Every structure is written in structure tokens, then in C-alpha cells.
Amino acid sequence: MTQPRPASQEQISALLRAARPDWRLVRAWPLSGATSSQVSAIEAESGDGQHATLVLRQYGAANLKSDPHAAQTEYRLLQLLSAAGQPVPRPFLADESRAILPGPFLLQELIDGEPVDEPADLTDFTGQLAAALAGVHNCGFARAEVAFLADVRDDFARQMGTGPAHPDEYLREAEVLAELEDRWPPAPVNRPVVLHGDYWPGNVLWRDGRIAGIIDWEDALFGDPLADLAITRLEISWFFGQDASQTLTDQYLALRGEVDMATLPLWDLRAALRACRFNLQTWGLAAGKLASMRAGHRAFIDSALRGLANGGGAA
């Protein structure tokens, strides 16, 4: 996937001045992990000698195809979430003019933290993940406040029409897609909320055993909280097993007991179909881990299909 060209020192200096006239570039370096955008870290110094570490996100073609105003969308959302006390990066500048860089970009705070791959206490780990997700969902933003976010049901209907020519039969992609096409959209059983859209351990930063920040909001949507929960359930199941996934689900529901789980099987299938289109072979996983994740994906699908057979997801 083609990424934008990294910004030059001259361009970074110009965008720092646009964000805050007394900021001076100290150094900049690339950050890894992004697939559809170019992400860099920047150290800036203010006129009074204070240093700040920032993140520059330059949006790629895939981001802009789904949302031509991705920079402004993420900026406005981070403003709202930050004001609501959520652990998200503070945004400093969004620019779509192409006057400084050849494409849209967002300049935001860098959160001091690291993802956790091997938690010392898995129950505490899933509990904190569940609590942070519940915190975002409990913000209570009205639709008018986030009118710039797409509705998750509409967004996924669009995605269903752009599937691969040759579905992955091992992952039962065609079967999952057929079930979703027959039943979409799910019944609106829950109050819609702001959705992260890609809430998994890789997008959560930790410091000293506590969650320090939730990053990478470019996939944010608006809709049923089960959309986020289903993605997280699959990711936790992949990396830590089905028991951990169920523990996280129970921990989330203990904080948001009003959530109606009736349509969860459909949202689980949506998460599974989304994951069908990940190219796991390029992740650098050991053969055993890759096989385990693929088997876990099939088990997740089986569970969702059993839920549908038992009446879950019915409109």
C-alpha cells in the first residue's frame, strides 16, 4: 500500500510554525506500524525552551478514499474526546490546504507509552481495556456533535460491496459475507456512540501498568457499541484465547449493563469478515502462531453462526 512521502525538515519547520509560531524543529524520525499513512515523531522546542514531542500523520490514498476530510475528521474528534477527559492525543493542527505538504495531515501530541503484548496479569489487562472502551462509549455525544463521522451500518454496507474476487474459503469468507448480506443491517437495539473502529491492543498504550492512551482514530465511526466490542473480542481471542475474550466481554458489560447483546452475532461476523481481508502472511508471524490465529478466526465465526442460529442478530 503506497504511503505519502515523508515530510522534509523544511516542511516540518513550516507546519510547526503554523501550529505554534514559537515552535522550532529539533529533530524528526519515522514511526513504524502504520499501513495506510506516513507517521513521524517530531521533537519541537518553544521560545521559552520547553520541549514537546509530537506526531505527524500524513494520510494515504486509502484514508482519503473513505474520507476526503480525514485530517479534519480526526482533529475534531480528538478535540471532543480530549475535552471529555478521554486518554487520547491532543490535536494541534489539521491542514487540508496542501500549502505545506502535498496532502492532508494532522499534528498531535505523542503519548508516552507502549503497547503490551504479554501482560503479566491477563484479567487486569482485559479489565483495563474494557474500562477504557466503556469510557469512550459513555461519553454520550449526540449525533449532531459528531455529524462528520460516518454511520457504522452504512460504512459496512459499502465495504460489503467491495470484497475480493476470490474469497478465502479456509476462512469461510463467502459464507460469512452471504450471512451478512442476507441480514444487514442489524436491528438498532442500542444507543449509538462514538466508535474507535479499530480498538485492539496495538492501539492502546501503557505506562507503569496502566493505560496511558488510545491512539489511531482514523477509522472512527458512529453507531452501535457492539461494533467496537466485536472487533476487540476477536482480537483478544486471537492473541489470548476465547476465555480471555469472554472475560473482556463480561468486564465491559459489568460497566455498561444497559447494552443489549441480541445482535452481537452479526457484529461478530462483521468483525470476522473485516479480519478476512487482513493479509496475515505479511505480519511476520511464526508458522505456529499464524495457524493458531487462523484456527481461532474460524472458531470465532462458528460461535457467531451458532448465535445467529439461536436467534441472535434478528431484526
Could you characterize what this model shows?
It is a single chain. The longest helix is centred in the C-terminal third of the chain and has 23 residues, at 287-309. The mean pLDDT is 91. Helices cover 42% and strands 16% of the residues. The protein has 315 residues and is an alpha+beta fold. The chain has two domains: 9-109, Phosphorylase Kinase, domain 1 (2-Layer Sandwich); 122-309, Aminoglycoside 3'-phosphotransferase, Chain: A, domain 2. Strands 1-2-3-5-4 form a five-stranded antiparallel β-sheet. It has a two-stranded antiparallel sheet with strand order 6-9. A two-stranded antiparallel sheet has the order 7-8.
Tally of strands:
9
What are the secondary-structure elements, in order, as H or E?
HEEEHHEEHHHEEEEHHHH
Name of the CATH class of the largest domain: Alpha Beta
Tell me, briefly, the overall form.
Answer: globular
Please report the distance between the alpha carbons of the first and last residues.
Answer: 37 Å
Mean pLDDT over all positions: 91
Strand order of the largest sheet: 1-2-3-5-4
CATH fold field value of the largest domain:
Aminoglycoside 3'-phosphotransferase, Chain: A, domain 2
Radius of gyration: 20 Å
Q: What profile does the largest beta sheet have?
A: 5 strands, antiparallel
What is the level-2 CATH architecture name of the largest domain? Alpha-Beta Complex
Q: Give the count of helical stretches.
A: 10
Helical/strand content category: alpha+beta
User: What portion of residues is helical?
Assistant: 40-55%
Would you identify the regions where 5 or more consecutive residues have pLDDT less than 50? none
Domain module tally: 2
What is the strand content?
Answer: 15-25%
Q: Look at the structure and name the CATH superfamily of the largest domain.
A: Aminoglycoside phosphotransferase (APH), C-terminal lobe
